[in-house]
Amino acid sequence: MPNSINKLSEMKSHGEPIVMVTAYDYTSARIINDIGFDAILVGDSLSQVMLGNDTTVPLTIDEAILHTRSVVRGAANTHVVADMPFLSYNLSIDTALMNAGRFLQEGGAQSVKLEGGHHICKTVEQLVSCGIPVMGHIGLTPQSINQLGGYKVQGKSKEQASRILDEALALENAGAYAIVLELIPVEVSKQITSKLKIPTIGIGAGIECDGQIQVMHDILGLFELFTPKHTKQYVNLAEQMRFGLKEYMREVKDKSFPNNSHSFTSIQNS
Ligand code: KIV
After folding, report:
1. How far does residue 84's CA lie from ligand 1's centre (Å)?
2. Which one of 41, 48, 184, 216 would you pick to mutate in the ligand 1 pocket, going by the greatest count of ligand atoms within 8 A of its CB?
3. Rounded CA gap, 15 and 24, in Å?
4. What CATH number matches the domain at 5-235, 3.40.50.620, 3.20.20.60, 3.40.50.2300, 3.30.200.20?
5. pTM for the complete prediction?
6. Interatomic CA distance for residues 161 and 19, integer angstroms
7. What residue ranges of the chain have pLDDT lower than 70?
8. CA dist 11 → 3, 4, 78, 113 (Å)
């Protein structure tokens, strides 16, 4: 049975940092699950890192559910949060409820994540009242990239910072069980974290959040198009993949692979 959302709130009350990472497939989810992460996000960043789109906007609900299901199969003990794609929760509260329900029923996720502040609070209330735990996401909200005009730090002015704090409080009142804070100054995330009872999970929001989340492909050096300032690359898997694939190619070309140990024969030695 995966961790429940209660574990994350207990961690906040004990001051124990929450660690989350994204995953989009079964094999990675198994590894993350074995290591013992507190939760996995099937982020809509899969639109860029797995599907090759420029932004998160083109991701469809069917694509997101397919990836959620594969992660859930690999994450036997880990809470899986499914990121609801662009427009899948904005058309009406009923549509949001139906689509969030699909992530739990078809995808097998234990909760969903929605981007936005005041305008989604009624939706959050309704999902929560129907038994669907909701993680919020404020600060930089990548689904609004066409409106924001780029991946810029949010909440730098006093007015913006207090708007983000108001949004956080409104989401908590609406019943969100945790909130992702993306690309906001450390002072702002510190203030939000101290005012909220629910955990804050930061990405580019500094050390004062209750937990951290990173895109797996960034920390493992798998996504080479750009490395955001807020990430740290712990290994360079792209280089290792290149090495392994080149070795395989070389050995096939020079006929050193496969050798007898990788081959089968019908002739029995007596
Ligand atoms: O989709 C994603 O990877 C996210 C994280 C940046 C929090 O939403």
Report:
1. 11
2. 41
3. 29
4. 3.20.20.60
5. 0.96
6. 25
7. 268-270
8. 12, 12, 15, 19
Dihedral angle sign, alpha carbons of residues 65, 71, 75, 81: negative
For 100-141, the pLDDT digits (tens) are: 999 999 999 999 999 999 999 999 999 999 999 999 999 999
Tell me which residue has tokens 């955990």: 199
> Residue 231 burial by CB count (10 A; 0-12/13-18/19+): exposed, middle or buried?
middle
Strand partners, 179: 136, 200
Q: Which residues contact 135 (CB under 8 A, 6 or more apart)?
A: 81, 111, 112, 113, 114, 176, 177, 178, 179, 180, 201
Residue nearest to atom 2 of ligand 1 (CA): 43
Would the CB of 203 count as within 6 Å of ligand 1?
yes
CA of 203 to the centre of ligand 1 (A): 8
CB of residue 44 inside a 6 A radius of ligand 1: yes
H or E element in which residue 80 lies = strand 79-83
* Amino acid 106: pLDDT: 98
Active site annotation includes 182: yes
Give the distance (Å) from ligand 1 centre to CA of residue 215.
Answer: 7
Query: Which amino acid residue places its CA nearest to atom 8 of ligand 1?
Result: 43
What token pair was written down for 108? Answer: 């097998």
